[in-house]
Amino acid sequence: MTTEDAATIPTKTINIQRATASRINELDFNNIQFGKIFADHMLVVDYKDGAWQTPEILPYGDMMMSPATSAIHYGQSIFEGMKAYRNPEGEIQLFRPLENFKRLNLSAERMCMPEIPEALFMDGLKELLKLDAAWVPPTEGCALYIRPFMFATDDFIGVRPSDTYRFVIFTCPVGAYYGVPLKVAIEPNYARSVEGGAGFAKAAGNYGSALLPARKMQEKGYHQLIWTDAKEHKYIEESGTMNIMFVIDGKLVTPAVSNTILNGITRASVLQVAKDLGYTVEERKVAVDEIIEASQAGTLQEAFGTGTAATIAQIAIIHYNGTDYTLPAIENREISNKIATALDAIKTGQATDTHNWMVKIEA
Ligand SMILES: *Cc1c(COP(=O)(O)O)cnc(C)c1O
Question: Against a cut of 0.90, is the pTM above it?
Fold first, then answer.
C-alpha cells in the first residue's frame, strides 16, 4: 500500500480493548485537578512501512519504548489541545475539531512527519469519546480536555526523519478556569520563535525552550511573559502559550499570524465573534511602544490572552522596562467579557451555532 492509499482509505475498523473496570469513581467532578486524572481509554495508531496501521483503543496506561526512541533525542514530536463540552440536553460536542486536525498536519509537515488522514483522526476521536462519554463533566464550566499527539518511534540515534511514528489521543476532565487576572512582562531578550523557524507548529521543543524564560519571569513576580519578535524585540507576538489581544480605543487589535506565531483556534473564534458583535478588528503588527503609549494615554482598555485552556485570560498588569502598567478593571472590559460569554454559550450549546463550529458525538 502506498502512502496515498493510506491517506484516502477511511478508517473502518478500530480494535477496541476495553478497560476491565472504569476509574471514574476516582474523579471528584466538583474539584477537578488539571492534567492529572486521565479517562479510561486512549487511541493508539502506529505508522510503519509508509502506512498507518489499524487503530486501537486501549485502556489508558504506560507505553513501552526503547531508550533510543528518536522523538526523545531529536524532538520529532507534535501535539494538539482541544475540548469536548456537554450541552443542556446532555449531548457531547466538540469545538472546531477539524481545525485541530488541520493544524496537527501543518505541524507534522513542518517536523517532517507523516500526514494523518482525516478519517483516522475524526473517527478515532469520536469512537474514543463514545467509549469515555461518562468522563465529559456535566458541571458548568467544565470540559473534557483532549490531547492528540504524534511522535517519532524509530529506535535509531542517527539524525534523520524517523521511519515509524505513533499517533495517540488521550483525554482528561478539566475544571472551570478560575485564573486570576495575569501579571505579564514583555520579554526583552529571549525568543520563542524566529522567522523561518517552527513557531507556528505545536512542536514539543518550542515548549521546552520556553520554560526557562517563563520561570525567570515568574521569579520576578509575573505569571507569564509576552513574547516579542526575535530580531528586535519591538513587536508583540504572543503571551506565554496563548495568543494575545488588546482593545485600543474601542478596536480589537491583535498581532497578525505569521510563521512565528501559532495560529490559535480560540484566536480565530474570538475575532469572528467580535465581528459578529459588530466590533472593529485589526490584525497587524503591534509594536511594544504602541501598547505602552496607549496605556499612558489611557486608550488601552483591555488586554487578554486567548487559548483552549482559558478561552480568554485577562491581563491585569503589563511590565516593560522597569515599569508596571496597570490596565482597567476586569469588570469594565466590555469587549472581552461579551466575547467570552458569547463563545461559552456556543460551546455549551446555549446559543445558536451560526458558524457550524460544534461537532456532535452520536450517543
Ligand atoms: C496552542 C497555542 C495557542 C492557542 O491555540 P488554541 O488553538 O487557541 O488553543 C497559542 N499559542 C501557542 C504558542 C500555542 O501553543
Answer: yes
